[in-house]
Amino acid sequence: MAFEPIATADQKTAAADKPLRADARRNRDRLVEVAAAVFAERGIDASLEEIARRAGVGIGTLYRHFPTREHLVEVVYRREAEGLCAAAGELAARYPSDVALEEWMRRFVDYIATKRGLATSLRILFTTNSTLFSDTSGRVSQALRQLVEAAVADGTIRGDVDASDVLHALGGIYSAPDTPEWRDRSRRLVKLLMDGLRFGARKAG
Questions:
Q1: Alpha-carbon dihedral of residues 29, 32, 35, 37, nearest 10 degrees?
Q2: Which domains are present in the chain?
Q3: How far is CA 100 from CA 103, 159, 168, 185, 192, in A?
Q4: How far from 117 is each of 37, 43, 170, 178, CA to CA, in Å?
Q5: DSSP letter at 95?
Q6: Is the dihedral of CA 119, 121, 126, 129 positive or negative?
Q7: CA-closest candidate to residue 42, choices 30, 53, 50
Q8: Which residue has the higher pLDDT, 50 or 119?
Q9: Is residue 8 helix, strand or coil?
Q10: Residues 168-197: what's their mean pLDDT?
């Protein structure tokens, strides 16, 4: 792994607060998007040089936006969590409630894949910024709760399900062995979970 400079707190604050030109904003957004994919594929040891190359920028551009690996990891984590939460409302507006719930859970698998890839740096961040995790986990739980309650209300899933139980079941996916077929197997587990929730609704009807 190439040497990575260590930024001071002042440098990190300046990098975060400095207004960006349109081209710089595009470069930053592209770096975050690519980093999420690369971390999900290769884990936290993924090369920052590869991220910069895939994003079409130089490594110096990456370091100007993200002075440390942990800084990049935090931004990627926030982006993935915020996207997952926003998807709940978007999917609810587009699909029937049970379909919206299933599609959201499939996206949750992708979120977990990125989170697994960031695990080492996330543990480091947890010691310095624990509110990052309490805030995002609370919002993710609330997004799932809204989808579950909507599906229960219109009878498309069984009425005795609690959102916390569904989240617990999804959390089990995170602890599954990290094998090449992990993502495909996880999506099959989501389908099995939804089939069970729908079957219970049909039986109740």
A1: -80
A2: 9-67 (1.10.10.60), 70-204 (1.10.357.10)
A3: 5, 17, 19, 20, 16
A4: 9, 4, 17, 10
A5: S
A6: negative
A7: 50
A8: 50
A9: coil
A10: 87
| Structure-block tokens of residue 115 | 């989170």
CB contact at 8 A, 64 and 28: no
pLDDT tens per residue, range 97-118: 999 999 999 999 988 888 887 8
- Confirm if 190 and 109 have CB atoms less than 8 A apart: yes
- pTM equals 0.78
Place of tokens 């498309």: 156
Burial category of 124 from C-beta neighbours within 10 Å (exposed 0-12, middle 13-18, buried 19 and up): middle
Tens digits of per-residue pLDDT, 34-83?
999 998 888 777 899 999 999 999 999 999 999 988 889 889 988 999 99
